UniProtKB/TrEMBL annotation:
GO CC term, one of those recorded: vacuolar proton-transporting V-type ATPase, V0 domain
Top-level taxon: Eukaryota
GO terms (BP aspect): vacuolar acidification
Protein's name in the database: V-type proton ATPase subunit a
Function: Essential component of the vacuolar proton pump (V-ATPase), a multimeric enzyme that catalyzes the translocation of protons across the membranes. Required for assembly and activity of the V-ATPase.
Coiled coil: 94-128
Pfam families named in the record: V_ATPase_I
Localization in the cell: Membrane
Length: 849
């Protein structure tokens, strides 16, 4: 809990790694994920560093692995379970892995190219077969298919000749030629028009569509094709026709001159196609065997290459000592993990067989350390909510432990419904129970991953919604009468207030709690169920929820202001307690804390008997600022004097908040210098960073923090800028004072969204379920089934998903703006340890794993 509240204490350390054991030591650190490396060669270009060639080899192996994974995925071969976590291979084994991958790539490439060549030949033979079969009747057509022919004015007698063969064409005195092939169906109309325009009628085009789909050799997709036969006269026309066919990417095949030749070609094609099918089947079997063998080791190779590349990248961040025999690395490390770091270096030295062990040495630093907050699977989601606002400054108070309770509670205040909370809790509990299921964890659906990563947040929101649903006594817009109502109708008749004539003459009746026996006491838990029947239910709940929202908001903001004291004390800025914290708290409590006091006072003092004479709190609160009270009955004796006193205190706290801190710091850096010398602060020579680091625990000057001490010696010696400090404090004062008003009003969203959720739920029940429940016939039972299905779908989609998302976003805003800005700066740098498990993978990004 201590590390979650404030984060881990960090230190800067130097690693002295022997050249022979540096690879193994960094491999051990990558497995543990303890340290964050700093770049000691910022001025050196990435391509000029020592291990750039090794990184290029790793990238070449990654390219081969991407090729293998794509082929495996294309062959629909299942990869083995990814439970293995092999260690990074030694530099000696890298060459063996590289050669193995290259041999596999060459073999796979040859087999794949042979397969593609066979498939292309098979496609060509299949197209040729279709062309011969369909074009059999193109030259000798039957009379009933004449409308499909193309007629030309140059040879009108051809329309009457139903049997045109080669011998009859010779009588025209021209050389007749044929071009046949296949073209995509989408291009045939443009192809026909182009032939007519270019060839001026010296061609005859006949075509027919192939019944089955054929594969496009360029895209691999099935397409519809058309077989065509072009008869032309003259060699020049033939050349033009061939050029047009090339432009439209037609597949041309030789056309036989006689039926005997056609039959011989078809028979030869049938034999060749059968042989190609046999060879292609054996090639695919062999290719599958190669891919299955590769799939057994491909994930191991992927992990090893990823680790190797990461290790060499880290080695490029290190620098050599003057002897070039030792690598020096600088790392940020949690103080509590220093023993683990030493053991990891010892293990790496042992594995490499180095005679000189590697070691670690803590060094003083003037830089601000990164922030590390350890989380588990439960707290990680809430920490992500805080980090989305900003990573915490080093060692400042972390809002996440308090967000675990306040965030789902404020969500539930806006979402309070027992039925909806149960549905949400069951859904989240299902995700929690099956959180180790790989199908749920490893999906590529970003929306689902968002829900799954926040399963514990959803579970807490659902549980708190059940609680607030019981408080509101609201379950799918209906109330539950568990303990029995505290109101009695019978007492109104016994007292003679209600009679039969009164009931018949009034559409609405009022229960008077002043009548003995009508009100027997409050409902044990939440709102009395009788309010669900009352016509003034909305008025009552509006008043209740609005006051509740103001009370929760003031408590939440006051708690945020109080948390700032932990930062002031830890960073040894005690003057902030008197000059910042105290004025802020007085301003907030003297105005808005007094408003909460008046709400509770009115609830406790005024009963049902004199509730009609209770004054308006809003009027009293306005008169408090105007310092007027005439004509309005007071809540209690001495109210006017107390209100004037509170306003004066709140007004006086503003100049203290505005001027107190800048004036004190100015005195501290100028008038208090001699006092500092007397107290011995000048013993620290600011030119020596090491002495400043060693003496900071005993001689820390009041007004400086841990982050101040992490600044450079030059910064410490800078002159104090009063104007800059005053401007900063003026902005903070204006923002805080105005923010107290706007933030208090902002918490009214709790009331508004709670009202909207309850009204939507009531409208959905009235317009859907009530229609089905009112049908009391046999048909009504059957009609109730689709009605309930519609009600369930609308409840989940509108009330749970849309309203839940709305309440989530509003609760997020209340924490970021109204709560966290009272004490949380969020200007830190997140600790990013070197860990193999956290490294991004291009294979997973491309969907190959």
């Amino acid at each position: 809990m201590g590390t979650l509240l404030r984060g881990e204490e960090m230190c800067l350390a130097q690693l002295f790694l022997q050249s022979g054991s540096a690879y193994d030591c960094i491999s051990e650190l990558g497995e543990l994920g303890l340290v964050e490396f700093r770049d000691l060669n910022p001025s050196v270009n990435v391509f000029q560093r020592k291990h750039v060639n090794e990184i290029k080899k790793c990238e070449e192996m990654e390219r081969i692995l991407v090729y293998l994974l794509r082929e495996i995925k294309k062959a629909d071969i299942h990869l083995p379970d990814r439970d293995v976590n092999p260690a990074a291979p030694s530099p000696k084994n890298v060459i063996a892995i590289m050669e193995q991958l290259q041999r596999l790539e060459v073999e796979l490439g040859e087999v794949t190219r042979n397969k593609e060549r066979l498939q292309k030949n098979l496609l060509e033979l299949t197209e040729y077969t279709h062309m011969l079969r369909i074009s059999r009747n193109f030259v000798q057509r039957t009379a009933e298919r004449e409308p499909l022919q193309v007629h030309y004015e140059e040879f009108p007698f051809l329309e009457k000749d139903t049997a045109m063969d080669y011998n009859s064409m010779q009588r025209l005195g021209a050389k007749l030629g044929f071009i046949s092939g296949l073209i995509q169906r989408a291009k045939i109309e443009a192809f026909e028009r182009m032939l007519w325009r270019v060839c001026k009628g010296f061609t005859i085009l006949s075509y027919a569509e192939v019944e089955e789909y054929l594969e496009d050799p360029d895209t691999g997709e099935p397409v519809k094709t058309v077989v065509f036969l072009i008869s032309y006269w003259g060699d020049q026309i033939g050349q033009k026709v061939k050029k047009i066919c090339d432009c439209y990417h037609c597949h041309l095949y030789p056309y036989p001159s006689s039926n005997e030749e056609r039959n011989d070609v078809v028979e030869g094609l049938r034999t060749r196609i059968q042989d190609l099918h046999t060879v292609l089947l054996r090639t695919e079997d062999y290719l599958k065997q190669v891919l299955i063998k590769a799939s057994e080791s491909v994930y191991t190779w992927v992990v090893q290459v990823k680790k190797m590349k990461a290790i060499y990248y880290i080695l490029n961040l290190c620098s050599f000592d003057v002897t070039n025999k030792c690598l020096i690395a600088e790392v940020w490390c949690p103080v509590s993990d220093i023993p683990k770091l030493r053991r990891a270096l010892e293990e790496g030295s042992r594995k490499s067989g180095a005679t000189v062990p590697s070691f670690v040495n803590r060094i003083p630093t003037t830089d601000t350390p990164p922030t590390l907050i350890r989380t588990n699977k439960f707290t990680a989601g809430f920490q992500n909510i805080v980090d989305a606002y900003g990573v915490g400054t080093y060692r400042e108070v972390n809002p996440a432990p308090f967000t675990i309770i306040t965030f789902p509670f404020l969500f539930a205040v806006m979402f309070g419904d027992l039925g909806h909370g149960i549905i949400m809790s069951v859904f989240a509990l299902w995700m929690v129970l099956y959180e180790n299921n790989r199908k749920l964890k490893n999906t590529r659906n970003e929306i689902w991953n968002t829900f799954f990563e926040g399963r514990y947040i959803i579970l807490m929101m659902g549980l708190f919604s059940i609680y607030t649903g019981l408080i509101y006594n609201d379950c799918f817009s209906k109330s539950l009468n568990i303990f029995g109502s505290g109101w009695s109708v019978n007492a109104m008749f016994k007292a003679g207030v209600w009679t039969n004539e009164v009931i018949r003459g009034n559409h609405l009746l009022t229960l008077d709690p002043n009548v003995t026996g009508v009100f027997r006491g409050p409902y044990p838990l939440g709102i009395d169920p009788i309010w669900n029947l009352a016509s003034n239910r909305l008025t009552f709940l509006n008043s209740y929820k609005m006051k509740m929202s103001v009370i929760l908001g003031i408590i939440h903001m006051s708690f945020g202001v109080i948390l700032s004291t932990y930062n002031h004390l830890y960073f040894r800025k005690k003057y902030n307690l008197y000059l910042v914290f105290l004025p802020e708290l007085l301003f907030l409590l003297c105005l808005f804390g007094y408003l909460v006091f008046m709400i509770f006072y009115k609830w406790l003092v005024y009963s049902a008997k004199d509730s009609r004479h209770a004054p308006s709190i809003l009027i009293h609160f306005i008169n408090m600022f105007l310092m007027q009270g005439d004509g309005v009955p007071p809540l209690y004796p001495g109210q006017t004097g107390l209100q004037v006193f509170l306003v004066v205190i709140a007004v006086l706290s503003v100049p203290v908040l505005l001027l107190g801190k800048p004036v004190y710091l100015y005195w501290l850096h100028n008038g208090g210098r001699r006092l500092g010398m007397y107290r011995g602060y000048e013993r620290v020579r600011r030119g020596s960073e090491e002495e400043l680091y060693l003496l900071r625990g005993d001689d820390m000057e009041e007004g400086s923090s841990h982050s101040d001490l992490s600044s450079s010696g030059e910064r410490c010696s800078e002159e104090f800028d009063f104007a800059d400090e005053f401007l900063h404090q003026a902005i903070h004062t204006i923002e805080y004072c105005l923010g107290c008003v706007s933030n208090t009003a902002s918490y009214l969203r709790l009331w508004a969204l709670s009202l909207a959720h309850a009204q939507l739920s009531e409208v959905l029940w009235a317009m859907v379920m009530r229609v089905g429940l009112r049908m009391d016939t046999t048909l009504g039972v059957l009609f109730l089934v689709p009605v309930f299905g519609l009600f369930a779908v609308l409840t989940v989609s509108i009330l749970l998903v849309m309203e839940g998302l709305s309440a989530f976003l509003h609760a997020l805003r209340l924490h970021w703006v109204e709560f966290q800005n009272k004490f949380y700066s969020g200007t830190g740098i997140k600790f990013c340890p070197f860990s193999f498990s956290l490294l991004p993978s291009s294979f997973e990004h491309d969907g190959l794993l």
